[in-house]
Amino acid sequence: MTKTNFTITVLPGDGIGHEITEICLDLLNQVVSKVGGNQLEFTSFAAGAAHYKETGISLPEEAMQHAFNSDATLLACMGLPSIRYPDGREIAPQLELREKMDLFAGVRPVKTMPGLPLPLTSDAAKNLDFVLIRESTEGLFASRETFKIEGEGESAAAYDTQKISYQGCKRVFDFAFGLAKQRKQQGYQGKVTCVDKANVLGSFYFMRQVFDERAKNHTDITAEHIYVDAAALQLVAKPWQFDVLVTENMFGDILSDLGAGLMGGMGMAPSADIGFEKAVFQPCHGTAPDIIGQGKANPTAMFLSGAMMLDWLGHQHNNVQLIKAANLVNKAVENAYASEELLPYELGGNSGTKAITDKVFAELAKL
Ligand SMILES: NC(=O)c1ccc[n+]([C@@H]2O[C@H](COP(=O)([O-])OP(=O)(O)OC[C@H]3O[C@@H](n4cnc5c(N)ncnc54)[C@H](O)[C@@H]3O)[C@@H](O)[C@H]2O)c1
Ligand SMILES: CC(C)[C@H](C(=O)O)[C@@H](O)C(=O)O
Ligand SMILES: [Mg+2]
């Protein structure tokens, strides 16, 4: 029998997370009841920088356990620049979630909405639709807890060590080729571009060799390499050439913000951290300390992350209504922007949380 009751762990986190979470849950409830047949049960937990400041714990065990046992996790954003661990790093329990739950594929779609004055103005650049996959459990982030400083004063040197493992590469590359294959069936190019720095670092040359090995199992998909510096140029010069990009954790973090820029800002960029069985969905953006409490937070990335969650659940459980619900959210958001009535603050306009939310709900009601 098809599963119809889904438990969702909700982590509003910090900063603007509190301004975009409830409305996203309302939207998801609304769309799921519109298509019928399913129910979402949300359970929220406090976690993040403010929670660490209050309690000394950034991600309570109860929240972690709930995330492990629920069907999916929806996270807004966490971290505040003023709240840090003793070694100077910020509180970022989303990294622990990714690592402990083995969510190796950070899926960050770059899909432009119609009706927005985007930084790139050519027709091709107005219709971008590619996906950046960021390895999310190792890379340069892997050693952050074993970070060390050797020597003192003017002879001190700080070290972070990059980890690129065979297994880590294999699973994320296979995921990327699998996604390119699915997309090819929908008319996309059928291409995976591996982004590295194999001209300078041996760890990236190793990564490239694993990529070439995995590519041999997917001869229907074009496999190519690009150095990360060249990728940064091409993402601005000719971003429409890309279909699926796959890269190391830190490179993916940086390039996905570039991708958000192409879409009109951080408030437009959704993401999903996906493992073999578990997944966490969250916007690419942070807690936006510069706009907290001003009503300027764009909830679009959160709505689209919620849609990614419905779509993933639908595919995991062979549940067509949830896939339909995901499509409806995407369509409502697209129609909201296509109306040309919305201009988010990040693009110089004055459409804030309420205006964008009201418009998306109104468009959903029409579908
Ligand atoms: N996934 C996450 O939870 C995540 C991601 C990035 C940063 N962070 C954390 O967030 C804090 C702030 O980091 P930052 O300033 O570098 O990045 P940020 O993404 O919070 O903000 C960068 C810029 O984008 C704007 N912005 C971000 N999201 C927006 C939205 N939804 N609507 C409108 N404008 C939006 C901000 O106002 C700011 O000008 C830090 O503590 C950082 O570690 C968390
Ligand atoms: C806040 C930070 C730890 C996080 C990351 O670097 O992964 C964020 O920038 C992201 O893109 O999700
Ligand atoms: Mg980031």
TrEMBL record:
PANTHER family: 3-ISOPROPYLMALATE DEHYDROGENASE
Organism whose genome encodes this protein: Paraglaciecola algarum
Keywords: Amino-acid biosynthesis, Branched-chain amino acid biosynthesis, Leucine biosynthesis, Magnesium, Metal-binding, NAD, Oxidoreductase
UniProt record similarity statement: Belongs to the isocitrate and isopropylmalate dehydrogenases family. LeuB type 1 subfamily.
Location of the Isopropylmalate dehydrogenase-like domain: 7-360
Protein name: 3-isopropylmalate dehydrogenase
Transferase among keywords: no
InterPro entries per the UniProt record, alphabetical: IsoCit/isopropylmalate_DH_CS (IPR019818), IsoPropMal-DH-like_dom (IPR024084), Isopropylmalate_DH (IPR004429)
Cofactor annotation: Mn(2+); Mg(2+)
Subunit architecture: Homodimer.
E.C. number: 1.1.1.85
Reaction catalysis annotation: (2R,3S)-3-isopropylmalate + NAD(+) = 4-methyl-2-oxopentanoate + CO2 + NADH
Pathway: Amino-acid biosynthesis; L-leucine biosynthesis; L-leucine from 3-methyl-2-oxobutanoate: step 3/4
